[in-house]
UniProtKB/TrEMBL annotation:
Protein keywords: Oxidoreductase
Assigned protein family: Belongs to the Gfo/Idh/MocA family.
Keyword Hydrolase belongs to the record: no
Catalytic activity: D-xylose + NADP(+) = D-xylono-1,5-lactone + NADPH + H(+)
Domain Gfo/Idh/MocA-like oxidoreductase N-terminal stretches: 44-168
Protein name per Swiss-Prot or TrEMBL: D-xylose 1-dehydrogenase (NADP(+), D-xylono-1,5-lactone-forming)
Amino acid sequence: MGNKLQSFTNPKWTFSLPQETPSYTHEQHAYTIEMAPEAPYTVKWGIMATGGIAETFCKDLLTDPATRSVHDVKHQIVAVSSSSSVERAASFIKKIDGPATARAYGSYAELVADSDVDIIYVATPHSHHFQNAMLALEAGKNVLCEKALTVTASQAKKLVAKAMEKNLFFLEAMWTRYFPLSIKIRELISSGEIGTVYRTLGEFFARLLSQNFLVHLRLPGLESKDHDTNPPRPADLSCNENTPQAAGVVNFPDTHRMVSKDLAGGALLDLGVYALTWVFQTLYHVQPSATKEAPRVLAAANQYHTGVDENTSVICHFPDTRAIGVATTSMLVGTSPHGEATAAPAVRIQGSKGEIQVPHPAYRPLAYSVIRKEGDGDVEVVKCPIPTDPARGNWGHGMFWEADECARCLRDGKKQSSTLPWDESIVIMQTMEEALRQGGVEYPELITTDIYDAKSPLNTGNK
Ligand SMILES: NC(=O)c1ccc[n+]([C@@H]2O[C@H](COP(=O)([O-])OP(=O)(O)OC[C@H]3O[C@@H](n4cnc5c(N)ncnc54)[C@H](OP(=O)(O)O)[C@@H]3O)[C@@H](O)[C@H]2O)c1
């Protein structure tokens, strides 16, 4: 028997087998354990802002990775900052049932100066992302920044340039991309399962005020009573967000980040970015990198009375690959009139040999279907439930997969994720910027500038 070894790693142990060993069985014990179990790579997170999505993300970070069969990385929340007050940061740590050792800060500047933080999660409104992410990068911190990445493409480019200059990891937090479901669908496309993909139709309409939607997105001030005790449920994307009193007026105060111009409100940057995610991950991401073609953009948007877009459609035209993607988003109507997953799919990926359909909600789908042109007419439905952690009240939202990706990139010294590379985030921002330009939406200078200012009110506070 030769002495060359082959290795494989199971979730907990690394074994070495003689190369000829045909297979491992418990009975034969034909293996020798040569190494201690590999300790998972642990990432220390600093959390910037204490709003709705920060809460959801942190609760995901606190789940045991083993509950999703992940054993090579794990996460620690070591610090939380609030631009409102240190007390708010401290009470956030309690609210998420976070570690007692986590440090609370009353400013974002203190967080980015904490030498014990590996990566900052930026969870402020998108109006703030450029200044806040730059604050962290300038301080030498790796960054995971919530979607929409920025307000303008130029801001996104500057953040990428800064990450390159400082040799730091930087990623847009488009969590849906890291779902096993998304990975599988991209694989199906690349392997030609539905032939050449010529069209993707993606909708993201949401009834933002439905109770179920609130459970997921944690819109501040609009929490349902069972918000913290019920496990997450699929979002209700049914229609009619109008107030009962006035048609066409949504139930957000005009100062709310969903509709305020000062906070880069509007349907496209908040919701439509998911519809575009499906267009991009099925028509752009899968193109060969040498010949990647950015789309030509044709858009229409109606404006809400605050001046943000309320109802927007974007056609992405890829003439070289003969593909077209249509992304639609609205705060006024819904994908599913009755709120059930039985309505028309949220996403249709249409190829020469068949089609893949994804039910709503487009940001957190729990299944997909494959319908083949040839065949017996069967629809193959694949369910993709999101794992939960019994030790954390059966919590599990699906944001942990993007966190795992960050951890692996940091462990492996990667500065960007191949699942959502920098150039793609920039092209998506260019697409949204162009769509909003065509729709006549203009945001204020304070939030569109690409000049970094550590003392910008966007960095110094929400007090
Ligand atoms: N991935 C997802 O599924 C998902 C879901 C929802 C939202 N998001 C994205 O996450 C970001 C935050 O959304 P959110 O729903 O968490 O918002 P939110 O609940 O309003 O929280 C935003 C937080 O940002 C901080 N902030 C700083 N200046 C602010 C200002 N002038 N106005 C309001 N907040 C300010 C506040 O925290 P401090 O006072 O502690 O500083 C606030 O709690 C947005 O970019 C949104 O698109 C992502």
